[in-house]
Structure formats: structure tokens, C-alpha cells
Specification:
Layout lengths: L7 E5 L4 H12 L3 E5 L5 H8 L3 E3 L9 H4 L5 E5 L8 H8 L3 E4 H11 L1 E6 L4 H14 L4 E4 L11 E3 L9 E5 L14 E4 L7 H4 L2 H12 L7 E5 H7 L8 E5 L7 E7 L4 E6 L4 E7 L4 H16 L4 H10 L8 E6 L2 E6 L4 H14 L5 E5 L4 H6 L1 H8 L4 E4 L26 E4 L5 H8 L3 E5 L8 H16 L1
Parallel strand pairs: 1-2, 1-4, 2-3, 4-5, 6-9, 6-10, 7-9, 10-11, 11-12, 17-21, 18-19, 18-21, 19-20
Antiparallel strand pairs: 7-8, 13-14, 14-15, 16-17
Helix pairs in contact: 6-10, 6-11, 12-14
Length: 470
């Protein structure tokens, strides 16, 4: 199947971050786009404003007639997050519609274009967004399907200029969650990390390593592999595909960063790859982990004949991704940073960077664990990484797709946290608790609904600063 002859596209779960990027691309390509999602959100509001018809009622009568009346000209895309008993899903299956998972459709897109796929337990959203921004700012024709909302474009879909010379480059975030990345057809691959996660899907650490290894071996034989140093060691260098391979890392012998300086709002570093040095690069999304992400983006930019001047401009103008080390307040004596970190290694990377930026300030962390199974599987790691803070506030576990597991709660992390100030606080009591503590540097962490507290906390801190100024 190809997209030729398809006039209309209907997405079940259209409000998801990955699904909405596809919806936007099909709309841009001239298709009529509609969809269903369980609940409205700011993202679905944006899609409706862009001209898409979206319903929040899983009934057949909410499906547009252009879909039901023209099955041969319609494509139905669904995500496994849609319940098996969904009325719309059953209807499309029973009537023989062209029904594809999101990963299958991305696979078709990557087969049709020169594709750069970015995978890894951590860092893939920022790295893929940085690569796409670098290409776009250098006037390369690019389409990017991202797993987050970029601050530069306020979208999870980036589109470059079609008038520029050369083939369109597709940058796609390759998700390991349900092995969907194995459907892609990448010409180039970036692997940012290969730490264990999603053990509810993979079972154990070896199986997720096997999944990443299977993925990197999908790279085109004439393509390139950019692999983070520790990730390469974990997979086993002898098992990697026989293609042009470039290893990177802060202290890698391949591509590395030197003279790293942590500043209150940026990181400055030199890019070194054995053949070339670019000195004094400034990245305004702070963090040692983001410097490492930038190394991969710079290497790809150089391999696509982007000049040093264009790289400097692209890197310094990159504003990051929402909820990835996002600084909401940095004034007076107070700082508030929000991050999506929900794995021990992500928390360690985030808090280590905050410490380097504000070494003399007291660091308070609010953490909402994500998934009962992940909390259980990595409890010791969570406690250890959270111990980098001076004060830790734990919210209840965000269940996401899971039912509770007996004995698994946020409280199980407390004993292992080696800091004097640590406690459990409900979301309802959080703001009154903050009123009593007046944190200097406050960091919120988690992949659940903690993001709904972010504007409230930012407003509270700014109001306090305003009162102090008066």
C-alpha cells in the first residue's frame, strides 16, 4: 500500500504526541484529516484550529461521511492506546478499511524518503528536534516527526523549505516502547542511550538490548550510525552493523566535547571529532546531557555539508522542547526548571546539570513517579539519583496505562534517598507546602500529569518575586 489514491485520513487517538504529528503532515500534504480521542486537550484544540474534524465520543455517527462513504479512498491510523472494544475500531475492521498502526505509517514514510531515525532510552526527542532545527535553519528540505513540542516552532512537526536543492530529509523519533521502531527504514541512525526501561514490555534488560541491536541493524548498508559511547559498549561493538559508524560522548575517543562551561542559562563547549574542532559553541538549553545530544546533531550537520557558521547559528537559536529542561523562572534569588525525566538516569543527568549551573543554591525536587512497574523495577536507582537534591518532595505514582501493584507506592523510595529533607506530599497540598519552604532552585520531574502543576508553580514563584520587589 502507498498513500496514492488516499483522499481522507482518520486517526484513532489523534491527540497523542506521535499521532498528532502524522495528522499535521497528512493535512499539509492536502488530505482531509479527522480523528477521535477520548478527551480534549490543548493539542486537540490546536488541531481543530488547523482545520481537522475531531470528536471525543466513540460513536459511529461521529465519523465524517467522507470516511464512511469512501472506504477505498480512506486511511485509518490507530494507536495501541485505543481500547480493543472501541466502537470505531471495530467498525473499521469489520468493514475492511485500510487500517494501519502509527508505526506502520511512519515505516512507509521512511521507506519513501531519505530518513534519519533517532532512538534511545533518553534524549531522543531533544536530539531529533535539534537535528531537524539544524537542517531547517541551514535551508535543507526537511520533515520531522517529533515526540515533543518544539519551542522554536510550537509544533511536533517541522517542515523545511521545499524550494531548496536536494532530496527531502525525514527526521523521525524512533520509539522503542512497543518495538514500533522496528518498522522503520532508516538511512541513518542515532542511538542516544540503551539503558533498561519498559521492562513491562521487554521483560528484562537483555531483551531491550536485543531490541536496540535489532533496530540499529536496520540501517541502510550505505548509511551511517551515530552511537553514544556507553550505548555502543552495552550493545557490543562486534554486534553493530558494518556501516560507517561514529561514536560520540562527552569523553569519547571519537566525537567529544571539551572545555565545557556551565552558565546560569547556557552551556559553552568545543566540538572535537579528530578531524575538526569548532570552538566556543553556545547551547541555550542547558545540561551536560544536552551537550552530548548536540554532539550527534553537529556530526550529522557536518556530514550533510552544513557549514560551521550555520551550525553555530542553528545551535544557538535552538530553544529546546517543552518539558525538556525548560527554565520557567530564573531571576532574583529563585529558579524554577521543569523536566520530563522519569527514569533514574534522566533524573541524574538533569540534577547534575542543575548543580553545575547553580552550585551555591539549595536544590529542591518535586518528583512524580510514572508507572507502578517502573517505580518497582528501578526503585533503588530513583532513590540514588534523587539524593542529588537537598530536599525531595514525592507525589503519588502516576498510573498511566497500569493498575496498582500491591506494595508499590512512592513511599518505597523514601528510605533510600540520602538527604535530610524528604517527604510525601499530595498534589492538593503541594502549593501550601511550597509556601512554607520558599525553595531557591526548584525542579519538577515526571512524565505524568505533573505538567498541569507547572504553570501554577511558575505563577506562584513570579508573584512571590513581584511582592519581594515591591
Amino acid at each position: 500500500m502507498s498513500f496514492e489514491g488516499i483522499n481522507s485520513v482518520h486517526l484513532l487517538g489523534i491527540g497523542g504526541i506521535g499521532m498528532s504529528a502524522l495528522a499535521r503532515w497528512f493535512r499539509h500534504e492536502g488530505h482531509a484529516v479527522s480523528g477521535y480521542d477520548r478527551t480534549p486537550s490543548p493539542l486537540t484544540d490546536e488541531l481543530i484550529a488547523e482545520g481537522m474534524q475531531i470528536s471525543f465520543d466513540d460513536k459511529l455517527e461521529t465519523i465524517p461521511a467522507v470516511i464512511t462513504d469512501n472506504p477505498e479512498k480512506s486511511l485509518i491510523i490507530w494507536t495501541p492506546a485505543i481500547p480493543k472494544e472501541s466502537a470505531q475500531l471495530h467498525f473499521f475492521r469489520d468493514r475492511g478499511f485500510q487500517l494501519k498502526k502509527r508505526s506502520e505509517v511512519l515505516g512507509m514514510v521512511t521507506r519513501a524518503y531519505y530518513s534519519i531515525a533517532v532512538a534511545g532510552t533518553h534524549g531522543k526527542t531533544t536530539t531529533s528536534s535539534m537535528i531537524a532545527h539544524m537542517l531547517k535553519s541551514a535551508k535543507k528540505p526537511v520533515v520531522a516527526f517529533l515526540g515533543g513540542i518544539t519551542q522554536n516552532y510550537q509544533s511536533n512537526l517541522i517542515l523545511g523549505g521545499k524550494k531548496s536543492k536536494g532530496p527531502t530529509l525525514v527526521v523521525v523519533e524512533a520509539d522503542e516502547f512497543d518495538r514500533s521502531f522496528l518498522r522503520l527504514h532508516p538511512n541513518e541512525i542515532v542511538l542516544t542511550s540503551a539503558d533498561p526501561d519498559h521492562l513491562d514490555i521487554y521483560g528484562d534488560e537483555q531483551h531491550i538490548l536485543d531490541g536496540f541491536l535489532e533496530f540499529v541493524n536496520l540501517v541502510d548498508k550505505k548509511g551511517r550510525l551515530y552511537i553514544q559511547q556507553q550505548a555502543g559498549q552495552r550493545l557490543g561493538e562486534g554486534k553493530l552493523p558494518k556501516v560507517a559508524t561514529r561514536e560520540y560522548g562527552l569523553r569519547s575517543s571519537g566525537i567529544s566535547a571539551e572545555n565545557i562551561q556551565a552558565r546560569p542559562g547556557s552551556f559553552v563547549f568545543d566540538y572535537v571529532d579528530g578531524k575538526q574542532e569548532i570552538k566556543g559553541l553556545e547551547l541555550f538549553i542547558p545540561g551536560f546531557h544536552n551537550v552530548e545530544n548536540a554532539l550527534a546533531a553537529i556530526a550529522i550537520a557536518l556530514d550533510h555539508q552544513i557549514s560551521e557558521e550555520q551550525i553555530r547559528k542553528g545551535l544557538s537559536s535552538f530553544k529546546g522542547v517543552k518539558r525538556r529542561f525548560e527554565i520557567h523562572v530564573n531571576e532574583g534569588n529563585q529558579v524554577f526548571i521543569d523536566d520530563y525525566a522519569h527514569h533514574p538516569e534522566e533524573i541524574r543527568a538533569c540534577l547534575s546539570s542543575v548543580r553545575a549551573m547553580f552550585p551555591a543554591k539549595k536544590l529542591t525536587v518535586i518528583f512524580q513517579p510514572h508507572l507502578f512497574s517502573r517505580t518497582r523495577d528501578f526503585a533503588a536507582g530513583f532513590s540514588e539519583s534523587l539524593s542529588l537534591a537537598d530536599s525531595v518532595i514525592l507525589l503519588d505514582i502516576y498510573p498511566a496505562r497500569e493498575l496498582p501493584i500491591e506494595g508499590v507506592t512512592s513511599a518505597m523510595l523514601l528510605d533510600g534517598i540520602n538527604t535530610e529533607h524528604k517527604e510525601l506530599v499530595s498534589k492538593e497540598d503541594l502549593m501550601s507546602h511550597l509556601d512554607q519552604t520558599s525553595p531557591e532552585v526548584l525542579v519538577t520531574l515526571g512524565a505524568g500529569d505533573i505538567d498541569r502543576l507547572v504553570p501554577v508553580i511558575a505563577s506562584w514563584m513570579k508573584e512571590g518575586l513581584n511582592r519581594y520587589a515591591l
